[in-house]
TrEMBL record:
Protein name: Biotin transporter
Transmembrane portions of the chain: 16-34, 40-59, 66-83, 95-114, 126-149, 161-180
Naturally occurring in which organism (per UniProt): Phaeodactylibacter xiamenensis
Gene3D superfamilies in alphabetical order: 1.10.1760.20
Keyword Transmembrane in annotation: yes
Annotated keywords: Cell membrane, Membrane, Transmembrane, Transmembrane helix, Transport
Localization per record: Cell membrane
UniProt membrane topology term: Multi-pass membrane protein
Main location: membrane
A Pfam family it matches: BioY
Length: 186
């Protein structure tokens, strides 16, 4: 019985450490930004969604979603963790709100795909990152369409981001696969 208690505590403390480090990773990656010319929308492409997808696929379900939820709560409470140092609950009601909620949903989806071994095969890892990206973008576009209509949603939430999204899908798929290919699913 003592062994079981130690094992549970050790696994829980390891998961909590991973959750905190993953939240920090997302925060740091939100600061990594490639500028986009004003003619193409002017909205920088950040590493935020790449980090969310990696955390979701690399941590066992539901810990990746937990890390993203903690990230969102910290941002909502005013810590400048979102892209470009954004924060506050107003971030959820503005144009970024749908994307932020999509981060949480995508991380959960990625964790479920990990359970099915999707991170262990390059093709499935790429597909998982594509599906996670679709969840984030879809959630963001639905919210933007609600706020501004579909034309503006596509103009502000899709067209400036799709080239960067493809790069992040490829990069995230390869990174996750290289880290998970020899591991058991959890």
């Amino acid at each position: 019985m003592e062994f079981l208690a130690k094992t549970i505590f050790m696994n829980t403390s390891t998961h909590l450490l991973n959750l905190l480090l993953s939240t920090l990773f997302i925060t740091i990656m939100a600061r990594v930004a490639l500028p986009v010319p004003e003619a193409l929308g002017g909205i920088p492409i950040t590493g935020q969604s790449l980090a969310v997808l990696l955390v979701g696929l690399l941590l066992p379900f539901p810990w990746g979603g937990g890390a993203v939820l903690l990230y969102l709560l910290l941002g909502g409470l005013g810590l400048p963790v979102f892209a470009e140092g954004g924060s506050g609950w107003s971030s959820f009601s503005g144009g970024s709100g749908g994307f932020l909620i999509g981060f949480f949903i995508a991380a959960l989806v990625m964790g479920l795909l990990r359970r099915r071994g999707w991170g262990q095969h390059l093709g499935y890892s790429l597909l998982a990152n594509g599906l996670g990206t679709a969840v984030i973008v879809g959630s963001g576009l639905l919210w933007l369409a609600h706020l501004y209509g579909w034309g503006k949603a596509m103009e502000y939430g899709f067209y400036p981001f799709w080239p960067g999204a493809i790069v992040k899908i490829l990069l995230g798929g390869f990174i996750a696969w290289s880290m998970l290919r020899n591991r058991k699913t959890a």
